[in-house]
Design a protein that fits this description.
Blueprint lengths: L23 H30 L16 H12 L7 E2 L9 H11 L11 H14 L9 H10 L6 H17 L2 H11 L1 E3 L2 E2 L1 H9 L8 H9 L14 H15 L28 H6 L10
Parallel strand pairs: 1-3
Antiparallel strand pairs: 2-3
Helix pairs in contact: 3-9, 3-10, 5-6, 5-7, 9-10
Length: 298
């Protein structure tokens, strides 16, 4: 009888090989997921690409003043929908012709870190978030002057993540292409200060019957105080809450100390009396470009 070695291969008529194969259902599931992801990413990517292509060219604002803003158009559309029109009062003036009191009051009231941040005041955003969390509702914003300018010039009042993202991109672009002085000049000239009242010059003439260059510290503090709700306080109503805000602003601009935030740009070597290189055109050219002289200044 022949001995069969235990190491010899099996003499079984069939040899079985085991291979791990992915279940058909799992493979199909992965393919479906991949197709879904591609299907979602393609339209989103297309929208974002077109969205970026349609971003405003803010570099043009270096030397050109806007002839209208998104906020002005929105107010006009609202009025038209309600069956009436709003007369627009708007006179463009260079930063050098706006009272230092008003410039300081607006910075103190709206964005104390304006001349030191790069478009976003992260400490202010954090403080506003904590305040809103404690209050249990959205009562305070953390928008900088640059962010407010981006909204006024280009954006709707819609509250959405997409609009906030667009605002952030425009804000960064404004800070990249424009000087702080030019951003501030633009802001002071397009800010809403009442029913159909836009810009510091029209605001000064509407509320105090004088030019913006002649505003006192007290008057400037009132104008800065109404910026968060300009139409609510037109005509100017010195309520208790508004008076408290006015008094805080006035104190900050008249009792400066080494701890006070920077309220003006760093002094330049050139004479401050020289016109700003990015300032508006002379008055006769302003009219040709579509700027409206405030009837209250006549």
């Amino acid at each position: 009888m022949a001995l069969i070695s235990p190491l010899a291969p099996s003499l079984s008529p069939r040899t079985f090989h085991t291979h791990r194969t992915m279940p058909k259902s799992t493979a199909q599931s992965r393919r479906v997921k991949a197709l879904l992801i591609i299907g979602l990413c393609l339209p989103v990517g297309t929208v974002l690409f077109l969205w970026l292509l349609l971003m405003p060219d803010v570099s043009a604002l270096r030397t050109t003043n806007p002839t209208t803003t998104a906020l002005m158009e929105a107010r006009q559309a609202q009025a038209t929908a309600q069956g009436h029109t709003i007369e627009r009062h708007w006179t463009w003036v260079p930063l050098s012709r706006i009272s230092p009191h008003l410039r300081q009051a607006v910075v103190a009231a709206e964005d104390a870190a304006f001349f030191t941040h790069e478009g976003f005041d992260w400490e202010g955003i954090k403080d506003a978030a904590l305040y809103n969390l404690e209050a249990g509702k959205l009562k305070r914003g953390g928008s900088t002057i640059t962010q407010q300018l981006a909204k006024n010039l280009y954006l709707s009042s819609e509250r959405s993540l997409l609009r906030k993202a667009r605002e952030a991109l425009i804000t960064r672009s404004l800070e990249h292409h424009l000087t702080k002085e030019r951003i501030f000049e633009l802001y002071l000239n397009v800010a809403e200060w009442g029913q159909g009242i836009y810009g510091a010059e029209a605001a000064a003439r509407h509320h105090f019957k004088k030019s913006s260059r002649d505003l006192s510290a007290d008057e400037a503090a009132w104008l800065a105080a109404i910026l968060p709700s300009p139409r609510r306080y037109d005509p100017l109503r010195k309520t208790t809450a508004l008076t408290r805000r006015h008094d805080r602003i006035l104190k900050r601009i008249t009792r400066g100390s080494h701890q006070s935030p920077q309220l003006e740009p760093e002094p330049k070597s050139e004479s401050e009396s020289e016109p700003d290189q990015h300032s508006a055109e002379p008055p006769d050219q302003e009219q040709a470009e579509g700027y409206n002289e405030s009837p209250t200044s006549r």
